[in-house]
Design a protein that fits this description.
Blueprint: H1 9-16, E1 19-20, H2 38-58, H3 67-92, E2 104-110, H4 125-133, E3 141-146, E4 152-155, H5 161-172, E5 185-186, H6 192-195, E6 211-216, H7 217-225, H8 229-234, E7 238-243, E8 246-247, E9 257-260, E10 263-269, E11 280-285, E12 290-294, H9 306-311, E13 316-320, H10 342-348, H11 350-355, E14 360-363, H12 370-373, H13 375-383, E15 394-396
Parallel strand pairs: 4-5, 5-6, 6-7, 8-10, 12-13, 13-14
Antiparallel strand pairs: 1-15, 2-3, 2-15, 3-4, 9-10, 10-11, 11-12
Helix pairs in contact: 2-3
Length: 397
């Protein structure tokens, strides 16, 4: 399918073959019908008895049997075994409709909260140790690559956009794109970790040429009327495209759009702190799979059916994991920055974690979240069916 660089991909592989590690060619031999390779079984049977033939012929019981008569018998026996095994396999095999070949590849380019790791102003061990070791965790971001045309998308323009686009280019083998580093950007909302990277598209840095940007009407208006973002619009360094999101209560259906030909996207409004814009989650529909990206939400119980609506029809979901249990910010009022704790999400989706492990994956982890730094805790969470996203993991859709 596709090849990540992370161990986190093994979970969804086990669930549905969705998120995979580097390609491994270790499959058993199989026939075109999908069962075990029966001619190989027959070949081994023939080889075994052919080796024994001189011994058989040397015995008195076979002295009178012409060798030429033995060979057809052996071949007939081998054919009977192969055909019989094929019949058993075919009788037991259910009808399976093969999935379409993935046209697009979704890549995790960042998994931390807006400030990343290390985090400005943090003197806790998580950030002190990261500074000493040179460890870097960048804000939550996904990339999309069209496997046919090599066109590229970003979901979010984070403050570490240069690093993340560089990673996407490395994975895609892209080069020679100074004025069009990516072919489009989808924005979820106007918090700094999700759109501040747009400034790098300006004349002081990349000076891009009409890079398409998709956002809600309110968000687009904010970008048009507030500097320095308005200059990007005036100088035609970005081209704004307004989207019409649906609601998760089912009252309003989204208006689908295609940021890349063949890639359908729906946006859904989600409850979050909306100081400068509203907030959306995105569903990306490829020919073979569907991915949800919901990095920020206040609560799953804002209204009945919110989480169920977001997960409807989704094969892999990247969801808000800002806090593990809500106790990570001593001295700050957690109500000022509400997010559903990971432990609550796992409780709500316990059955899903058992039945389809790896379908829901955590992203947007605060620098203080122990699940970002504690490998034993990550293993425990993975064991419950909810892996933490790994930078570099890929999903074919």
């Amino acid at each position: 399918m596709v090849s990540p660089v992370s161990r986190g991909g093994e979970d969804a592989s086990a669930a549905a073959g969705l998120v995979t590690r580097r390609a491994r060619r270790t499959k058993p031999l199989r026939s075109s019908a999908g069962g075990f390779f029966h001619p190989e079984l027959a070949r081994r049977w023939l080889h075994r008895y052919a080796r024994a033939m001189p011994m058989l012929l040397s015995r008195r019981a076979f002295a009178a049997v012409p060798t030429l008569l033995l060979i057809p018998c052996l071949l007939a026996g081998a054919g009977f075994i192969g055909l019989s095994w094929t019949g058993i396999q075919d009788a037991a095999r259910p009808e399976v409709t093969p999935s379409p070949t993935p046209r697009f590849e979704v890549v995790v380019l960042g998994r931390a909260q807006d400030g990343g790791l290390p985090h400005l102003g943090c003197e806790r061990s998580c950030c002190v140790n990261a500074r000493k070791s040179g460890r870097l965790e960048t804000p939550a971001c996904l990339g999309v690559r069209d496997l046919e045309t090599d066109r590229l998308l970003l979901l979010e323009a984070t403050p570490r956009i240069e690093h993340q686009v560089g990673l996407l280019h490395e994975i895609a083998g892209a080069s020679g794109r100074p004025r069009r580093p990516v072919d489009g950007i989808l924005l979820t909302h106007a918090h700094i970790g999700h759109y501040a990277g747009l400034i790098q598209l300006g004349r002081e840095v990349a000076s891009t040429k009409a890079t398409p940007v998709w956002a809600t009407s309110r968000f687009c208006e904010y970008l048009r009327t507030n500097g320095p973002w308005s200059q990007l619009v005036e100088l035609e360094q970005i081209a704004l495209n307004e989207i019409t999101p649906g609601t998760t209560d089912g009252e309003t259906e989204p208006t689908s759009f295609e940021p890349l030909p063949g890639l359908r996207v729906d946006a859904f409004t989600v409850p979050h702190r909306d100081e400068f814009s509203d907030t959306v989650a995105y569903k990306l529909y490829g020919p073979s799979k569907t991915v949800l990206f919901c990095p920020d939400v206040d609560r799953w119980d804002a209204h009945e059916g919110l989480l169920e609506k977001l997960l409807e029809g989704v094969d892999v979901a990247y969801v808000d994991a800002t806090f593990y249990d809500g106790r990570e910010l001593p001295g700050r009022n957690i109500l000022e920055v509400p997010h559903p704790p990971m432990i609550r999400t796992m409780e709500l989706l316990e059955a899903m974690g058992r039945e389809t492990p790896g379908r829901v994956r955590f992203i947007h982890l605060n620098h203080t979240n122990p699940a970002l730094n504690d490998l034993d805790l990550q293993d425990e969470i993975r064991g419950r069916g909810f892996p933490v996203a790994e930078v570099g993991e890929r999903v074919g859709i």
